[in-house]
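Reference record
================
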Amino acid sequence: MSRIAELEAALAAAQTGAGVIDLSDQHTLQDVGIYRYHHPLENAAAYKDRLRSLEGQIDSAIKGHRAILAADMFTFDGSLARGRKLVGDLSKLMLRAYNAEADNCVRSLRSGNVRTAQKRLESAVTAIERLGAIMDMRINPAYHALRVTEIELTADFQMKMQEEREQAR
């Protein structure tokens, strides 16, 4: 019985990232002025254009109801119509919560904390999937990939802007 408890504790620690050593030298390299771009582009304007294009894809996914996946045969009080309404309403609520978390990640983003922002967003996906399990509700992985790309592009844009300012001096 204690072996099971040990294994469950080890699994929980692995899932939270406790005790995990990041072997990448990203932080060390950034400390000495080397930044590895996720999406290498020529200048800040190119990043701005790519971000605008990405925002269009995000908007399109939301308007096309492709951002969140949920069951469409859920019944509520024996009514399929009421079940669909409930699923639709909760989908909007969950998507709103996810987008708020994604926007906070982008707003508070600095070039050194991209990994932290991605983990926060992944935690939001996991929470929504856990909370929406009864209705088979989850964030569409393609939509999540768009938001992760947005985080990476924003970090790259910020770094490119900083480089261009330094070159202008």
